[in-house]
Specification:
single chain, 170 residues, mainly beta, Deoxyuridine 5'-Triphosphate Nucleotidohydrolase, Chain A, 9-stranded antiparallel sheet, 3-stranded antiparallel sheet, 3 helices, globular
Amino acid sequence: MSNVLSKHDIKRLLNGNPPLIEGYLDLEEQLQPNGVDFTLRDICSLESAGRIAVSNKERVVSTQSLLAFNEKGYIHLPNGIYSIIYNEIVNLPKNVMALATPRSSLLRCGVTVNTAVWDAGYSGRSESLLVVYNPEGFDLQKDSRIVQLVFFQLTGETEGYNGTYQGENI
């Protein structure tokens, strides 16, 4: 059985080498009782089709185009899908994995974030999918808190993530 890491456990891992999380903007604001809020660094539109195949050699990830924030740090996002990159870099030990969930304020505005599993042993600045369902769109400010990462201690150490996205966006 695995355990969700508490605020105390997260603080302990933040002092590790490497630290559990690097590049956070305001730890007092971002550290929650059951996880850490991750903040928005960049947002991109998807510009091409992608492909997933049986073999990773045939995988094609959609190309992206970086979108610009206005002079006040905001961007208006029409209804649609976007790729987002976080400010924070995560360094998961081989006995800790993570899942993220959108902050409830996003959901109340008709916006969600879809994420994948952060595997034990993964290190990088992750990307996720932001979906604006609201037909009126959504205004989003750079560096705003958008998801909460929740950490799970595994029953034991694993070999650790060793895939294509190891070290991404660093």
